[in-house]
Amino acid sequence: MQESPDQVSIERSSTRRYVARNDRGAEVQIGGEETDAVFTPGELLAIALGACNVMSADIPLSRRLGEDFTASATVHRTKLAEENRYTAAAVELVLGPEAAGRLAELEPVITRAVERGCTVGRTLEAGLTDSLTIRADPEG
After folding, report:
1. Domains in the chain, start-ordered, CATH in brackets?
2. Residue 71: CA count within 13 A, CB half-sphere
3. Order of strands, edge to edge, in the sheet holding 27-31?
4. Distant-in-sequence, close-in-space partners of 71: CB < 8 Å, separation ≥ 6
5. Average of pLDDT values for 77-94?
6. Is 0.85 surpassed by the pTM of this model?
7. 3-47 confidence digits (pLDDT tens)
């Protein structure tokens, strides 16, 4: 199986405040909990997991509920402060009124779509290998 490299960039904009960008022109503000109007890295991880779950189910849900269905996701995280890491995340997917009375039908479809299509969830389950390279840019 061939892996495709993918990247985003993160640049410091001020003390404990960064901006992340992708090649499609999107930006997100990142900072510590003490900084207003930013997401923390932990919140971004939760956002990635929740968005991946609901987006993985989007196409099968739109086939069953129509293109204009409503859905939202909330992610509850458990943090082990002594080790500075998250130990659990629980995604709650809430569907709108068009799904009322149809959860028994929709739940296996959603579960299957998320298990197959959520790259973030699959990555967290498998364990992500990461590395760090440090260098200086003489050009600034």
Report:
1. 8-39 (no CATH), 40-126 (3.30.300)
2. 26
3. 9-14, 17-21, 27-31
4. 54, 57, 58, 61, 93, 94, 95, 96
5. 97
6. yes
7. 666 899 999 999 999 999 999 999 999 999 999 999 999 999 999
